[in-house]
Design a protein that fits this description.
By secondary structure, the chain is an all-alpha fold. It contains eleven helices and two strands. The chain has one domain. Strands 1-2 form a two-stranded antiparallel sheet. GO terms for molecular function: calcium ion transmembrane transporter activity; manganese ion transmembrane transporter activity.
Length: about 300
């Protein structure tokens, strides 16, 4: 049994390392894409900002010598990170990672979930960044209004939420994963394949790609991606990318997802029993309202 567990960990290690490399490449490619959208290189080698966009990504040195672009990145990073934390703790994607990690190899589940969340974050940032062709003053106040609406809605949901809301969400996700497992088992039986994950049958030599992308990896990716699509955290990421530094939003959101998913994989059931989804929802509403109120103190032209 110990050899089997050790073998599962070793086979899942390439999956996790590959996902980390893919996430780094996605973030790097996103940054390069944004830079290319803002900067054009002319034949004399000089760099000129594209005039069709309202504000540059690169740092701006103010009169007192401070670097404004760095502050914009930090502000976007903190905003994105905090929004993801309050949106994802106790969310459906959190429970998906937690339950699957209790049934299958943790590294495989973590790799599949993180690839889905990282891809979704970069996609959401691109959606939000596409709105920057609109004058910043409009997107700034529209995003502020959306943050206020989200905040009020989360506060209402939190105040009306029952104390057992987290347990109900957990049971719903368990039923969904059980249904997917049954479909996977029927597919294996139809193809005459042994259930390797459950320990049945003999382990046959597999190709490198088959070890890298196992059925559990695909299941974790698919369930997480579908659960995240249209979720509150995705919409919040799009809104943030429309008003903040997009690279900071992408990095903060990805790290926030890494933290939440890592906690879910390591001790999701225990954490779900300790935290109150109602409390987290109320705190999330307060955070969203705080970002909306920040528009009263930060001007759209500041770029922060």
């Amino acid at each position: 049994l110990a050899d089997g567990v050790r073998g599962d960990s070793l086979s899942a290690a390439p999956q996790l390392s590959t996902v980390l490399v893919l996430l780094l490449l996605c973030v790097h490619s996103l940054r390069r894409l944004l830079e290319c959208l803002f900067v054009s290189v002319f034949s004399d080698g000089a760099m000129h900002l594209v005039q069709y966009f309202p504000h540059p990504v690169g740092p701006i040195v103010t009169e007192n010598g401070s670097i404004k672009g760095n502050l914009g990145f930090i502000h976007a990073f903190v905003a994105s990170f905090s929004v993801i934390i309050v949106s994802e703790l106790g969310d459906k994607t959190f429970f998906i990672a937690a339950i699957m990690a209790m049934r299958y190899n943790r590294l495989t589940v973590l790799a599949g979930a993180m690839l889905a969340l990282g891809f979704m974050t970069c996609l959401s940032v691109l959606f939000g960044y596409a709105t920057t062709i609109i004058p910043r003053i409009y997107t700034y106040y529209v995003s502020t209004a959306l943050f206020a609406i989200f905040g009020v809605r989360m506060l209402r949901e939190g105040l009306k939420m029952s104390p057992d809301e987290g347990q109900e969400e957990l049971e719903e996700v368990q039923a969904e994963i059980k249904k997917k497992d049954e479909e996977l088992q029927r597919s294996k039986l139809a193809n005459g394949a042994p259930d390797v994950e459950a320990g049945a049958g003999t382990t046959l030599p597999q190709s490198k790609w088959h070890r890298l992308i196992s059925p559990i990896f695909i299941q974790a990716f698919t369930l997480t991606f579908l659960a995240e699509w249209g979720d509150r955290s995705q919409l919040a990421t799009i809104i943030l990318a429309a008003r903040e530094d997009p690279f900071g939003v992408a990095v903060g959101g990805t790290i926030g997802h890494c933290l939440c998913t890592g906690l879910a994989v390591l001790g999701g059931r225990m954490i779900a029993q300790k935290i109150s989804v109602r409390t987290v929802t109320i705190i999330g509403g307060i955070v969203f309202l705080a970002f909306a109120l920040s528009a009263l103190f930060i001007k759209p032209e500041s770029g922060l």
